[in-house]
Design brief:
By secondary structure, the protein is mostly helical. It has helices at residues 2-23, 30-63, 79-85, and strands at residues 89-91, 97-99. Strands 1-2 form a two-stranded antiparallel ribbon. Strand 1 and strand 2 form a beta hairpin. The protein is elongated, with a radius of gyration of 17 Å. The protein starts with a helix and ends with a strand.
């Protein structure tokens, strides 16, 4: 799991360097470049959380236990945001809407 999360971070940094190298010469406003950076790294945070939750669920399933990862999603996630990103939703064990 650590290797996967590290790969996400390295990939995001490399992608950001390439995008920034093109954005500055193109004359994009600094505020737009900064917002894009924020969105890129927020996405990596959510992707990392989803990967860790999925990994924990799989380990729990193999052990025959119930995972507690239903509540590990970032506080910024919401059903509306999930629909925007086309993320599937499920009903959690307590009947609340959760991300898969």
């Amino acid at each position: 799991m650590d290797a996967l999360l590290s790969a996400y971070r390295v990939g995001a940094r490399v992608a950001w360097r390439c995008l920034a190298a093109g954005a500055v010469p193109a004359g994009l406003p600094a505020a737009e470049v900064a917002k894009f950076a924020e969105l890129t790294f927020a996405y990596i945070d959510e992707l990392s959380a989803a990967s860790a939750a999925g990994h924990a669920d799989e380990l729990a399933a193999r052990a025959g236990t119930t995972s507690a990862t239903w509540n590990t999603w970032p506080a910024t996630s919401s059903p509306a945001r999930a629909r925007t990103c086309c993320w599937p939703l499920l009903n959690g064990p307590d009947g609340s809407l959760r991300f898969r």
